[in-house]
Design goal:
Blueprint: H1 3-16, E1 18-19, E2 31-35, E3 41-45, E4 56-57, E5 72-75, H2 79-94, E6 103-106, E7 111-112, E8 115-116, H3 117-124, E9 140-143, H4 146-150, E10 155-158, H5 165-172, E11 181-184, E12 189-192, E13 195-198, H6 199-207, E14 210-215, H7 220-224, E15 229-234, H8 250-257, E16 262-267, H9 270-292, H10 296-318, H11 324-329, H12 331-343, H13 345-356, H14 360-368, H15 375-388, H16 396-407, H17 414-418, E17 423-427, E18 438-442
Parallel strand pairs: 5-6, 5-10, 6-9, 10-11, 11-14, 15-16
Antiparallel strand pairs: 1-4, 2-3, 7-8, 12-13, 14-15, 17-18
Bound molecules: nicotinamide-adenine-dinucleotide and SN-glycerol-3-phosphate.
SN-glycerol-3-phosphate binds near residues 219, 284, 336, 344 and 346.
Length: about 450
């Protein structure tokens, strides 16, 4: 009696989800109705590969029949916060078996010509200040109350400029169940008593919830206009993972963020994607300086080459769990460095500093209408951490950016500041009298 309607329902869902996506066919799995430990019916994926030109079930077929749909809240409503909220709200409508339709977006309330920004978003369905001209789904609800917006949420998507995170987290402390799962879309670090911390680790430690990250080559205005791009989501299953169909896992996250115009790859390397995302903003400032000086593409490429080296070195030194492959294989790695250095806000701010002879804060204020160039804060945090470790000389580009932004060091001196003065060892001739085994010289 029970199985018949359930099968019919299942077939209807599968029919809706047919796809002809050739590229990802090898990742697809046939849907199987299995029994879990509690003898409840759940759907799992078998390892059978499906022919690319046959109709296949997409990952949308992952259904759980015994759990309420996940309720999702986006914390933040800036340029990227609103864009990701749009992506998420589009997916919750299309996957009602998996997600609750309505997505709350916490908005730091402000008045726009006498009207509240939340009211404008909820009536005109546009964020006129931070993402003008983009229509938002009607199931995206702007909420000015942080605590009300997270009430009953199963998944929190953090997306604010990282300087505001500590205050938000302190307000949430004690008001969040430890079963909640989170994804941080922020790019930056937290530098404090615990040393240099990933923002996902900071959220995890402060709120006692599992937290992954989303990062990629994603200029928000392009994603908002639904121009194709890729991103990387990284998430590790928590120790108290409740099981497939019952808890957030890689498949659920793919369904939450993947759109036809926003292709998601889900991996485990939270540290790798977070380090790349935070530090590329510092490199982008240096890129903006040389571009603003009119030095052209060769100089910009040199900055990116040195910058990538320092990003990888930073990761290896302070987050040995991060994987070097992530930096060149994932959208969150070198691809993000390239896109940010081509057209991001950090590069714009730095170019403006070079051409208008203003400081970073003035440039940000004059150019960005309340948005944030995160490299300005990150270069200071990185400097503070490296100074604590007495390692500033090992990261000459990061240090040069800090000195230019905070100590008025002339940006024209970048080439000298980042010149690689690596010591190298010269073998003594075997036949000569033994003296010191090696001599250290500088190039
Ligand atoms: N914009 C992009 O293209 C992009 C893309 C990928 C990642 N990111 C990252 O996403 C994160 C969020 O960036 P964004 O572009 O959404 O923000 P943004 O730069 O547009 O910043 C504006 C936001 O900050 C909020 N704000 C201002 N004062 C505040 C306060 N006192 N407390 C709390 N919030 C306040 C504003 O209300 C607004 O929502 C950043 O770490 C950024 O690096 C941005
Ligand atoms: O505009 P930026 O410089 O903050 O960069 C935006 C994104 O991080 C690019 O992926």
């Amino acid at each position: 009696m029970f199985l018949i309607p359930q099968r019919l329902f299942c077939q209807r869902v599968i029919t809706r989800c047919y796809s002809f996506d050739y590229k990802s066919y090898i990742q697809r799995r046939r849907l199987k109705l299995l029994y879990n430990n509690n003898n409840t019916k759940v759907f799992k994926m078998s390892t059978t590969h499906v022919h690319p030109f046959k109709r296949v079930e997409s990952t949308q077929s992952i259904i759980h029949m015994h759990r309420q749909p996940f309720k999702v809240t986006v914390i933040g409503s800036g340029n990227w916060g609103t864009t990701i909220a749009k992506v998420v709200a589009e997916n919750t409508v299309q996957n009602p078996h998996l997600f609750a339709k309505d997505v709350h977006m916490w908005v730091f309330e402000e008045n726009i010509n006498g009207e509240k920004l939340t009211e404008i978003i909820n009536t005109k369905h546009q964020n006129v200040k931070y993402l003008p001209g983009i229509d938002l789904p009607h199931n995206l609800i702007a909420n000015p109350s942080l605590l009300d917006s997270v009430k009953g949420a199963d998944i929190l998507v953090f997306n604010v400029p990282h300087q505001f995170l500590p205050k938000i987290v302190s307000q949430l402390k004690g008001n969040i169940s430890k079963d909640v799962r989170a994804i941080s879309c922020l790019k930056g670090f937290e530098v404090g008593a615990k040393g240099v911390q990933l923002l996902s680790s900071y959220i995890k430690d402060e709120l006692d919830i599992q937290c992954g990250a989303l990062s990629g080559a994603n200029l928000a205005p392009e994603v908002a206009k639904e121009h194709w791009s890729e991103t990387t989501v990284a998430y590790q299953l928590p120790e108290d993972f409740k099981g497939e169909g019952l808890d957030v896992d890689h498949k659920v996250l793919k369904m939450l963020f993947h759109r036809p115009y926003f292709h998601v790859n889900v991996i485990d390397d939270v540290a790798g994607i977070s380090i790349a995302g935070a530090l590329k903003n510092v490199v982008a400032l240096a890129c903006g300086f040389v571009e603003g000086l009119g030095w052209g593409n060769n100089a910009a490429a040199a900055i990116q080459r040195v910058g990538l080296g320092e990003i990888i070195k930073f990761g290896q030194m302070f987050f040995p769990e991060s994987r070097v492959e992530t930096y060149y294989q994932e959208s969150a790695g070198v691809a993000d460095l390239i896109t940010t250095c081509s057209g991001g806000r950090n590069v714009k701010v730095a170019k403006y500093m070079a051409t208008k002879h203003v400081d970073a804060f003035e440039a940000e204020k004059e150019l960005l209408n309340g948005q944030s160039a995160q490299g300005v804060i990150t270069c200071k945090e990185v400097h503070e951490w490296l100074a604590t470790c007495e390692l500033t000389e090992d990261f000459p580009l990061f240090e040069a950016v800090f000195q230019i932004v905070y100590n008025k060091m002339p940006m024209e001196q970048i080439p000298e500041m980042i010149d690689e003065l690596e010591p190298f060892e010269v073998e003594e001739d075997d036949e000569e009298e033994p003296s010191a085994a090696t001599t250290t010289v500088r190039s």
